[in-house]
Amino acid sequence: MRDLYIDKVVVHMGVGESGEKLVKAEEIMKTITGQTPVRTIAKKTQPAFGVRKGAPIGCKVTLRGKPAADFFKTSLGIIEKVLFDNQFDKTGNFSFGIEEHTDYPGMSYDPQIGIYGMDINVVLERRGIRITRRRMEQKRLPAKQRVNKEDAIQFLKKDYQVEVR
User: Fold this and answer.
1) 4-164, what's its fold?
2) pTM for the complete prediction?
3) Helical segments of 44-115, H only
């Protein structure tokens, strides 16, 4: 019950505008992750960037289980297994960015498409989290069962040989 596991990996690509650029980003994400992306919508109007509230400005995919672990291992190889202390939050989740989609295996540069970057968010959990989410007899998670920053760092060092600076 104390062992950590990867609950989900969320891959997000923000392009800032809808249209052809967003369609290309969705195709790239579908190729890399193997799942159909969902469009993300602007929450606020930003006139300086030409973004309207409610306009699609990006796409995301949520991976769980084995596909999430495989994608995470591939992404760690791209960033050379180095994460920084400030990339972790107090609940043990962490995020990092990939600058170019062409770093993934099977992807190559195409002048018609361009280069897209992406954000990868990883959520770690322990077994027993269901007591906070179930419908009947919902309870709070005990402090010893919650994931914290130090637990997440130790998990990554032990299981994935990640260097945290």
Assistant:
1) 50s Ribosomal Protein L5; Chain: A, (3.30.1440)
2) 0.91
3) 65-78
